[in-house]
Amino acid sequence: MRQFEIKIHGNSMYPILKNHDLLGVESFDKPEEIDKFAVGEVVLIRDRREWVVHRVVDFGVKATMGDWSLCIDAPTKIWGRVLTVNGVPDPLLRDKKVSLISQIISGQPMVFRKFFRVVLLLYVFLKRRGCC
Questions:
Q1: ∠ Cα 52 54 58 (to 5°)
Q2: Residue 42: which CATH number?
């Protein structure tokens, strides 16, 4: 295993990760099976021709998806685990509640998605201030 830093582009993991955040990633010598990772962990996957940072979720079968995204990835291999954001360990990188809220958002009609995204923003705001 080795560690490296990667700058992200995009907002699929907002509000936990933002465009241009610098992530500390633990990479593996060979890809690991998704079943070895806990729901809520933020991981590095390979999606077609690009590297993607998403959270492990469970819809009866483990998959990954962005916290702010409506698309579900179906990777079988995980190439790395995110450890830090801008040089600081963040407990929200392994938060099962964020994963659950993201799963709820993806299953809702469009009219309710905005409401649950506000719930996600509020949860992250309060969690980062030590309120929950």
A1: 135
A2: 2.10.109.10
Q: Residue 131: CB partners within 8 Å, gap ≥ 6?
A: none
CA distance 72 to 85: 23
Report the candidate in 45, 109, 49, 111 with the shortest Cα–Cα distance to residue 72: 45
Split into its structural domains, the chain has a count of 1
User: Taking the chain, what is the end-to-end CA distance rounded to the nearest angstrom?
Assistant: 33
Report pLDDT digits (tens) over 83-106.
Answer: 999 999 988 888 878 877 777 776
**Is the distance from CB of 66 to CB of 27 less than 8 angstroms?**
no
